[in-house]
């Protein structure tokens, strides 16, 4: 009985929020080449993984109405890590992969306003309304995090940190998986925890057709 209640509460938070997300069968493997992608950002610039050869890249799936995403923006944890990454030459791409009409969908103007309002600092805010990037990487929740090394290999996938809650108070207590992994990649070391279980709100997939 209590287990069912806990599961229902997790699903009700922020529109089908998940405390922990299952890892889908189509999720890309760490240690293999990262899936290619191409998408337009909120300022009309086209970004592709091929053009970022030689750069370390972070992908962050986002949904501004998800309490788990809000946790990391309200605490400034996400913005702080974005700025830390930028200072080290890392390309940080926030990706909105929700379908039109679904929670988390944004227009270019809305994406820019979100960046301004949240004082965020991604390298770019990619618009992925057909969920092509999300599907290619097997993203299931927001935020779902990925790190691609300078040779184009996927070296991390999973949660931003170790405490699957929507509470800002938990941020300082958590192991910041993405920060730790990025530091290891930048130091030329192997990522010790390269695959962790993501948590957040279920990603609202769009039609994969053109």
Tell me what the structure shows.
It is a single chain. This protein has 210 residues and is an alpha+beta fold. The protein has one domain: 3-Layer(aba) Sandwich (Glutaredoxin), CATH 3.40.30. Helices cover 27% and strands 18% of the residues. The protein has six helices and ten strands; from the N terminus they run αββββααβαβαβββαβ. The protein has a seven-stranded mixed β-sheet. Strands 1-10-7 form a three-stranded antiparallel β-sheet. β2 and β3 form a beta hairpin. It starts with a helix and ends in an 8-residue tail after the last strand. The N terminus is likely disordered.
Low-pLDDT stretches: 1-17, 19-27
Rg measurement, Å: 16 Å
The CATH superfamily bears the name Glutaredoxin
Beta-strand content bin = 15-25%
Approximate helicity band: 25-40%
User: What characterizes the major β-sheet?
Assistant: 7 strands, mixed
Write down the overall mean pLDDT. Answer: 89
Instruction: Give the terminus-to-terminus CA distance.
Output: 45 Å
CATH class: Alpha Beta
| Number of helical stretches of at least 4 residues | 6
Order of helices and strands: HEEEEHHEHEHEEEHE
Strand order of the largest sheet: 3-2-6-5-4-8-9
Instruction: Please name the CATH architecture.
Output: 3-Layer(aba) Sandwich
User: What is the number of independent domains?
Assistant: 1
Would you give the CATH topology?
A: Glutaredoxin
Going by helix content, strand content and strand pairing, the class is alpha+beta
> What's the total count of β strands?
10
Shape: globular
């Amino acid at each position: 009985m209590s287990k069912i209640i806990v599961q229902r509460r997790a699903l009700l938070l922020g529109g089908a929020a998940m405390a922990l997300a299952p890892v889908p069968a189509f999720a890309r493997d760490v240690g293999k080449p990262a899936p290619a992608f191409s998408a337009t950002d909120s300022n009309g610039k086209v970004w592709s993984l091929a053009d970022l050869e030689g750069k370390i890249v972070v992908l962050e799936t986002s949904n501004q109405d998800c309490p788990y995403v809000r946790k990391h923006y309200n605490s400034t944890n996400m913005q702080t890590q974005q700025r830390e990454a930028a200072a080290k030459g890392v390309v940080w791409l926030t990706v909105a992969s929700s379908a039109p009409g679904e929670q988390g969908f944004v227009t270019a103007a809305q994406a820019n306003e979100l960046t301004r309002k949240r004082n965020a600092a991604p390298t770019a805010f990619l618009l992925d309304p057909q969920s092509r990037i999300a599907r290619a990487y097997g993203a299931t929740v927001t935020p779902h995090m990925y790190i691609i090394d300078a040779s184009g290999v996927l070296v991390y996938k999973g949660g931003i940190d170790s405490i699957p809650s929507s509470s800002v108070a938990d941020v300082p207590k958590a192991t910041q998986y993405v920060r730790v992994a990025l530091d290891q990649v930048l130091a030329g070391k192997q990522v010790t925890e390269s695959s962790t279980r993501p948590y957040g709100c279920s990603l609202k997939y769009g039609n994969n057709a053109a």
